[in-house]
Amino acid sequence: YYEINGEIAGVACAQASLERINQIVKEVELYNTGFCFVLDNRGYVILNSEDISPPELSVNLNNDIRNSENNILSKIANDMTTGKNGLEEIQLNDKDYYIAYAPIKRIGWSFGAAIAKEEVIAPVVKNSEVIENITQENISKLNSHMFQTMIFMVIFVLLLLMSVTYIGRRLSNHFVEPIHELSDGVREIASGDLNKKLNIKTGDEIEHLAICFNAMTDELKTYMDNLTKITAEKERIATELDVAKNIQTSMLPNIFPPFPDKKEFSIFATMNAAKEVGGDFYDFYLLDENHLVVTIADVSGKGIPAALFMMISKTILKNFSMTMTNPDDFAAVMALSNNQLCQNNDAMMFVTVFMGMLDIKTGEFLFVNGGHNPPLVYHKSTNSYEYLNVAKNFVLGGMEDIDFKQQSIKLDKGDIIFMYTDGVTEALNPNNELYGEERLINCLNRSDRNLSVEGLLAFVRADVNNHVNDAAQSDDITMLTLKFN
After folding, report:
1. Who has the most CB within 10 Å: 46, 57, 71, 105?
2. CB distance 267 to 452 below 8 Å
3. Neighbours of 334 (CB within 10 A)
4. Please, which contacts does 255-260 make with residues 24 or more away whose CB atoms are closer than 8 Å?
5. pLDDT, tens digit, for every residue of 256-286?
6. What is the per-residue pLDDT across 321-360, written as a single tens digit (0 to 9) for each?
7. Is the pLDDT of residue 96 over 70?
8. Distance from the first to the final alpha carbon of the chain
9. Does the pLDDT of residue 70 top 80, yes or no?
């Protein structure tokens, strides 16, 4: 104890007789096989019920049972020396025990009590036998009661069925005959007799159902009449679209080789519309003996409007080209065509155009780009394809009085110009991935250099189809290949 200023004023101490504590431990009654023991903080058993405890828990101040080969006993000893509470099942001397333990906090020891498992569960086994006997007695009584109940239920059900049968016979004439009439009428309607009318007057739901059937046949007749008209209209439109497709196809050069006597160049082109008719087009023609004009274009939108604007654009471009008297007028052809397309263009449509003119004697290739995808050019000297460097001119039909820049390159023997529309590079696969410019140039560089111009287009189209897989075609696909021989 301490003084107010914190200095020690004195010390008092008391001790208990170990024999007395041991006697207290031995006096604890734990059935026939139970025993108690005390463990100090060093892991030694210092007190126990000597007569019946297993050797592993006998008093032995040279044996730290935390090091026991019995893992469960070692765990119990560690828990006890660290002041923990617990209950564990353990096997000692080939016999199962339950050991409960708790700390003696004031002196740092721990008290443990062990009872054989068979003694703990003996009352449970005994009670189980009693419960089983009681259950058997109750099941016998319950079976007898259920048998009597089932007899009663069978009699009740038989009486109920007899009553229902009697009542059903009385009501059948009121319900069954109208139902048969309704059923017969429905079969006639289903067979195609839409003029059939049901005349049922029962004043109940069956009459209401008959009225609904009569209304349904009227609506069905109206629907069938309308469907006939719509089908006829669709067939007419399909026929007209087929004619339009044939007209559009016939407007594009489709005989190859187009100039059999001209060996200075080879040319091939294809156009596959996403719908019946498309907005892409290609064109090529000789201005004179030495100059070949090639065009590839893509109109905004799809379908019939794009097809009409495509025909107008193709005609205007060719007309102005045919009036050209000097190669330097090539950019003017695009400018004049643009102004012509802008007039009365209330639909605000436009067209991207790449137009080139090849001098088949010298290999000089003049070109003007109107907002179109840049073509690829193959140089035999480098044995590779590259994108043509084109000026960024505006599209045609978007704005009047625009100047277009004319450019030129020199083609050598064996060089190739590959032109295409964005339907190639923007082809989508089922994962919505674009074919893209990189795949296109890689495909061309993988191609056999001995392929004809027709074979080259087939090779590219096969690669596009392989990318697209089974996805629907989303845009017109047009390609043109020109080789200088």
Report:
1. 57
2. no
3. 25
4. 256/454, 258/284, 259/286
5. 999 999 999 999 999 988 776 777 899 999 9
6. 999 888 778 899 999 999 999 998 888 999 999 999 999 9
7. yes
8. 118
9. yes
Helices and strands counted in the chain (H then E): 9, 15
pLDDT at 325: 83
Closest CA to 15 of 107, 108, 109, 83: 107
pLDDT at 161: 87
What 3-state class would DSSP assign to 113?
strand
Q: Is 338 helix (H, G, I), strand (E, B) or coil?
A: helix
Report how far residue 284's alpha carbon sits from residue 480's, in angstroms, rounded to the nearest whole number.
10
Quote the strand ranges of 310-395, DSSP E: 351-359, 364-370, 376-379, 384-387
Could you tell me what percentage of the chain is helix, strand and coil, using 3-state DSSP and rounding each to the nearest 5?
A: 45, 20, 35
Look at the block and give the residue holding tokens 């020109």.
482
Given a cut of 70, whether residue 239 has pLDDT beyond it is no
- pLDDT in the model for residue 304: 80
Q: Which of 150-154, 380-384, 465-469 has the lowest mean pLDDT?
A: 150-154
Task: Report d(CA 8, CA 1) in Å as an integer.
Answer: 6
pLDDT of the residue at 449: 93
Give the integer Cα–Cα distance in Å for 325 and 288.
11
Q: What region does 6 belong to: left with phi over 0, alpha with psi -120 to 50, or beta?
A: left
- Answer yes or no: pTM beyond 0.85: no
Sheet hosting strand 416-420, strand order edge to edge: 265-272, 477-484, 416-420, 376-379, 384-387
Tell me the angle at which helices 303-322 and 205-251 cross, rounded to the nearest 10 degrees.
Answer: 10
Task: Say if strands 109-116 and 95-104 run parallel, antiparallel, or are unpaired.
Answer: antiparallel
Give which of 477, 278, 302, 251 is closest to 373, Cα–Cα. 477
> How wide is the angle at C-alpha 271 spanned by C-alphas 269 and 276, nearest 5°?
160
The CA dihedral of 53, 59, 60, 65, to the nearest 10 degrees, is 60
**Which residues are bridge partners to 420 per DSSP?**
479
The tokens for 457 are: 């287009």
For tokens 């189209």, what's the residue?
461
- Residue 237: predicted pLDDT: 66
How far apart, in whole angstroms, are the C-alpha atoms of residue 420 and residue 364? Answer: 21
Strand ranges across the sheet with 351-359: 280-286, 291-299, 351-359, 364-370, 406-410
CB atoms within 10 A of CB 114: 25
CA–CA separation, 242 and 246 (whole Å): 6
